[in-house]
Amino acid sequence: MSNVQIVGILNVTPDSYFDGGRYSSVDLAVKRAGELLQEGADIIEIGGESTGPTSPDVSLEEELRRTIPVIRAIHKEYPRAMLSVDTYKSVVVTQAIEAGVTMVNDVTAGRGDKDMFAVLAKTDAKVIIMYAKDQTPRTTIAATKYDDVMKTVHDFLKERKATMEKSGIAASRIILDPGLGHFVSSDPQYSFEIIARLEELRDLGCPLLLSPSRKSFLAGTENLGPGERLSGTIVCSAIAVLHGATFIRTHDVLPVRRACTVAQEILLA
Prior knowledge:
The chain is α/β, with parallel strands linked by helices. It is built from 8 helices and 8 strands.
C-alpha cells in the first residue's frame, strides 16, 4: 500500500471556522507553510473562500487577490513543495496552476462552475471531488436524513467520476472525498458512519481523501468548540486510514501525521 499523504490546510480567509484571519498576509502564510512542511505535510492546500454555512460569498477578484500571491510566494520559497488550491472557480484554477499548484480541491465536484472540468482536462493536475448535500458551494445547516448514506455518496461520486472522465480527465488523476460534517448532514451519525464504511468506496478505483479536521460532528455531548476538537480529529483520521484513506486533510499536521503513521503500522502488521 502507498504511504498516507497529509494535506496541511492553509486558509487565507478572514472567516474560516478554525483558522480564519490567522494567515491574512503573504508573509504570515509563507511562514505557516514552512511550519506545515516542518511538521510533515506532504501537500499544502491554500483556500481563499470559506464554504461554511454562515460565510459570505467571495468574488472572483477577491479570491484571486487572496490566493495567487500566496501561492506564488510559497512556490518560490519552497519550490519542491506540492501545492493544492481549494476552489470551485475555474479561473482561480488556471491562475493557481500557473503560480505553482499541482492539485485542485473542488468541494462542488464540478457543479459550482460549468467550465471546471473542461479547464482541468487541459492540465495535469490531480483533482479532488467531494460529496456535498447542497448544489451550491456554501453548505447549509440541515439535519438531512438518508436511507443509506454510503449508497448516496457512492452513487454521487461514481456519477461525478464518470462525468470527469468523459470530459477528458483521466481516472488516475481523480481523488474522492465522501464529505463530512455539514456537507453531509448536521446529524453527526452520518459522518461517523461514513468513516466506518469508507472501504465501500474502494470499488470506484480512486484514492480516498478524508478531512475530519475539527469539524462540527466532533462537538459531541459536551458541545466542544473547534479549538477543543483535536482529539476527535486525531481518532477519526487514524481510523480513516485503517479503512482505506490515502489522503488526510488537516489543520493539525504533526499530531495527525503521527497518529496516521501508527495506523499504517497496524495495517502492515
